[in-house]
Amino acid sequence: MTAAGVASGHDITIITCRSEVADHGVPLKNFDPIGEFELPEYELQRLSFPPVLQIFDYLEQGGFTEVIISTPGPTGLSALAAAKSLGIRVVGIYHTDFPQYVRILTDDSFMETLTWNFMHWFYSQLDVIYVNSEDYRKCWIERGIPREQLRILPRGLDSHLFHPSRREPSFWRARGLTEGELGMLFVGRISKEKNLDLIVTAVTRLRDSKSPVHPIFVGDGPYMAEMKKLLPHAIFTGYLDGEDLARAYASADFFVFPSTTDTFGNVILEAQASGLPVIVSDIGGPRDLVEHGTDGLITKGHDAGELTEAIRTLANDSTLRINMGKAARSRVESRNWTEAFEQFWNASPE
């Protein structure tokens, strides 16, 4: 979204704190961290501790009129403190359901409560909070955040990259899909919080009934080794991006995403734009993106039986898959990042 804003001529600078930063073609101010460490149970994610006084000075001297905080980590805390001291409007985006992640990854309800307490303390100080779905707006209202502080974050999509025309039957055959099998695709982090055990149970039950469904996983994560043991016949590609990822979507037959911790789910939009019917759970943000029975199926969260039957329904009916796939494409093809950014940029407090 930031790239779309810069392309539209808006004055935006991304502030980061990393020992190494990739060039994404947008104005960037990186502060060298005082220290960094990887999060336990969540490798590849690091907490960086910023030079707080330098951030204060940068915001004060730069004449900033608004601070948008993407995550409530140390850099976000520093930006919040600086903005409050300087009288700058503060907007925040709640991307990740951290309390649920903590509960699933640590199996500790006390840690979940502590995380909720911190999230509430942090976000209640913001002028506006953007959430990714109506489900999470209701969640925050129930936890005491005033309704007028909350917005739904506009989201875009590259519907030219993710398109049914990129379908190549040979794409998955070259990776192990055989004639007559149906490619059931999952794209995302291979981790416990994505409820991948439900896919394992569903696939095992379907194999017992000689279903032609073949599971495909695009992504990587800490649960990869375990998943390969549980589903040794599945296709695992690791990370894909760009046109390879677009071909991966379009060349599959349908998409399954049983996660109950996602606040939105960009992968849902990408699958729909690629012409795939989608199966999601009724907990979390993805359910807002699917119309049950029209462009996909919504199943009860944490219910392996319902997930199994939803997969069986799509596997057994090619006409239903085709019609749902067309409806899914129609649902999202008008989305674009430029329009989404303009809606975000021009929003004012209700």
Write structural notes for this entry.
- The chain has 350 residues and is α/β, with parallel strands linked by helices.
- It has 2 domains: 2-156 and 336-345, 3-Layer(aba) Sandwich (Rossmann fold), CATH 3.40.50.2000; 164-332, 3-Layer(aba) Sandwich (Rossmann fold), CATH 3.40.50.
- The protein has helices spanning 2-7, 52-61, 74-86, 98-106, 109-123, 134-142, 169-173, 196-208, 224-230, 242-250, 266-273, 304-315, 318-332, 337-345, and strands spanning 14-16, 28-30, 35-38, 46-49, 66-69, 89-94, 128-131, 150-152, 182-187, 213-218, 235-238, 254-257, 278-281, 296-299.
- It has a 6-stranded parallel sheet with strand order 11-10-9-12-13-14, with helices on both faces.
- The relative contact order is 0.12.
